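Shipment paperwork, digital attachment
Item: protein structure file
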Amino acid sequence: MFDKSTWIRLPRNVVVGHGVLDRTVEAVSELHLHGRPLVVTSPTPREVAADRVAADFEAAGEDPALVEIETASFEAVQRVIEVAREAEAGYLVGVGGGKAIDVAKMASHDLETGFVSVPTAASHDGIVSGRGSVPEGDTRHSVAAAPPLAVVADTEILADAPWRLTTAGCADIISNYTAVEDWRLANRLQNVEYSHYAAALAEMTAEMLVDNADSIKQGLEESAWVVVKALVSSGVAMSIADSSRPASGAEHLFSHQLDRMVPDAALHGHQVGVGTIIAEYLHGGNWEGVRGALATIGAPTTAAELGVDDDTVIEALTSAHEIRDRYTILGNGMNEAAAVEAAETTGVI
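Attachment content:
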């Protein structure tokens, strides 16, 4: 008897393009959300976009509340929850990069209210995914949450964001290559549930970035368009799979281990990109093509460019499998000699 079922949560409105920040209120109104909006942001995104969004809500007859956070933390999530309850907010609007959006996403999940994502940087696929990432001590927690009901991505604002954030987003997308390869491996060896549809979509987003690497340029709004569309597709793939598997494999374990060992050494996407080079080598794939695409867009490809010493990379590779119970090409762990060979062969060290 066939009894399989699934529940896919996807954004209902995705608005991408030049000047679309001014359409945030319109995108939200079509969702038929009720109550007072709470805008969650951080200092720089507030100046760039959040104050404008709040003013637009006010002009539309709403009474928006606004809360500013400094860092992504469980304490910040709790603070937003408290402000939302005090303000009797009906839904949350996250305006900013990873910090504001992840915190707003997790707070709205706890409050069981709607959430709208308004990214000011294309730095990772969290702008549309159903997961939030929050550091705690020497550990980064990836927490399940509902994906946004709407995404409003203004390419004019994204193109003006610090270039390193955009290259980190590109590297995060390219990592889908090895994430999907790990997912297939886990399906074959561990009978992990696998979605061909989600995997194909995730791989397509990676190919989109690699094939267009030459055209992704700093300050070019068309580049922001390509990157944000790929990030949206990557997030949708995770929603279809109801798992981060389409976009998170050994390369993410490597990055999370670096976070433990050398916190804030480099951006998440950049660490993931370097991890992807090594993971693709271990899979016997086209690691040279991955490294070339990363280099073309200006993302790090070596430990030195990450600001991490060689010994730290080797230690991270040999211990990354301990991060979480997720089967990847790392299996039960690499020995030191194998890690050195992989890192040296790929030019990471």
